[in-house]
Amino acid sequence: MKLNLVVDMxxxxxxxxxxxxxxxPNRKMEEGADRFIMDYFDPFFDQIAFYSWLREPDYCEDYAxxxxxxxxxxxxxxxxxxxxxxxxxxxxxxxxxxxxQSLAVKKVQLTFFGLQETQDRYVGRKGAFEEVMKATEMLxxxxxxxxxxxxxxxxxxxxxxQLYELAQGLRKNNYPALEFFVHEGSCEGENQKLYPxxxxxxxxPPALAxxxxxxxxxMTEKDCCEILKDNTASPDFPLGDEFTLNISNTYDVYxxxxxxxxxxxxxxxxxxxxxxxxxxxxxxxxxxxxxxxECSWADLVRRFGDPRSEKVFSLDDFKMYLINLYxxxxxxxxxxL
Length: 337
Ligand code: SF4
Description:
Layout: E1 2-7, H1 33-41, E2 47-51, H2 63-73, H3 87-90, H4 96-102, E3 107-112, H5 116-123, H6 128-141, E4 145-151, H7 157-172, E5 179-183, E6 219-220, H8 221-228, E7 242-247, E8 252-255, E9 267-268, H9 274-283, H10 287-293, H11 297-304, E10 312-313, H12 315-327, H13 330-333
Parallel strand pairs: 1-2, 1-7, 3-4, 4-5
Antiparallel strand pairs: 6-10, 7-8, 8-9
Helix pairs in contact: 11-12
The structure holds iron/sulfur cluster.
């Protein structure tokens, strides 16, 4: 079996209002935490990829050595880079882009929520808008393609349109490879709090349709309720033979399917015996999974869905939204581990 361990060893400089993981305090984990975590799982898995970052990649000062350690400590497999990097570090550390180039990074995603004031407010830091703009310029001048990811809602839809116009202008001039896409994001973690301003399908500016992720498949909450309202099956998460675990800086363990909140805790690496925790994880015998098997989709829609809502959802995001509302309701929170 293969295991990916994604560990919040250093934290994140941002507090994004859409953060699907949920906000957690920053805390640098102690020396040796990586070895302890690897040793904990080692007897049970043939392959283990270790990631020392769960939130901001390369946030620690010695990111190059840390990446080398992640590679060295992994077992019979290696962690991947994806298309992620730290814009916080891009604009502060002149050695960082050369480091990304040394790893053959070709593209880096940068996240936008709107123009200056909105971006700063959504990221939780003054100067965040200037930083992503400067990061765009720096990546481009070093031959790395910037990809702008925009989260849209009722509050920022006009600004996302202005960002698209800005991106089109930049493409014509200096940044021909600049990529751009828009989506609504899931409805979990911090983004769950933005449900009241989740965008309605008919309010998406028509000019954004061509850059909207899976626009032709977009559904409304009403559509999702209609699909699920007579479905008497229970929610199910098929557990294969590859697992990815998110591990908090206090050693709590979660599947990586949704936010890191209490109902989803599988166990704690400092408190729980390894064999029992792994058994619970691979068999799905966790609090959250036990509780949701007691419901049906029809139940969940009746209790938590709004059949009149025109808010945009993919069916999978809507299902997770229902499950999380249930797990945080009085019925769902009873009998916590
Ligand atoms: S979305 Fe990413 S960058 Fe923003 S707060 Fe969450 S982990 Fe940090």
